[in-house]
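Lipoprotein e(P4) family 5'-nucleotidase: structure, please.
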Amino acid sequence: MATMMRLAPALLLAPLAACATTTASGPATVTPTGPAAPPAGMQYLYGSGEAAALSRQAWTALVAHAAAVVKARPTDSVVLAEGASLGAPKYVPCGNRPFAAVFDVDETVMLNTGFEYHDAKTGKGYVAADWDAWEKTGEGAVGPVPGADSGLNALRAMGVTVIFNTNRSAANADATARAIKAAGLGEAVHGQTLYLAGDDAMGSRKDGRRWMISRSYCVIALGGDQLGDFTDLFNVGQNVPARRAATQGPAIAKLWGAGWFVLPNPVYGSGLKGGFDDVFPADKRWAPPAQGEK
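Here you go.
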């Protein structure tokens, strides 16, 4: 998970439903019944067939890509090297190191369904203490992202080591490993196949951990739900339009679906930014004509 950023559920929820009760001795009373439905982003990610289909589509493409790469050993990995830029990327060379695929955990391979239920019902938004408690105790209420369990098994079967690189806390490493296993995603060993925030001095930035992994492996695929799961260069202060454009430059655009694989997440994260001027360019705005105009 990249540094958490959410829209407070209260801003996304429909108005509170209420039921009226009339008694023989007095007027009707109104009893709040809580949110009528989860926020739209949660409905989509945790409930919709469309999100499940998108996830499976990504995992199918990822496994096919890995199978092709394993047959023809690449010269370079898909991890950007130190000193690279988005305009002039360069990659960590593979040498003769064994293959690995590196994944974020939350909403990339594992759905935090139990935590999001709590978040939606309380309407509190993200609370760090609640998330810490979830990391420690939530293993019974997680599940695999659709396609992730079979996808990871397929990678392992072709000799690709699966490594998790998440911004969950290193202090909760054992609990995170249990949650990954409980979700049906296999074993994770801290410092070997599980890397966490606190494993280096870079906080929520993941490049240092990617370079650490690349010392031992040729990384042939990266998977995540936030751009920081691919390179920290996306999070160096660009405004919203510039950040979007950075994903589409010629050197970077060719990586999507061919080494870098994105999973949908409309619930939280670095993608939930931007005002009207950021999201809707001036030359792409429309309003219905005034009455009488053509």
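Notes: The two ends are 50 Å apart (CA to CA).
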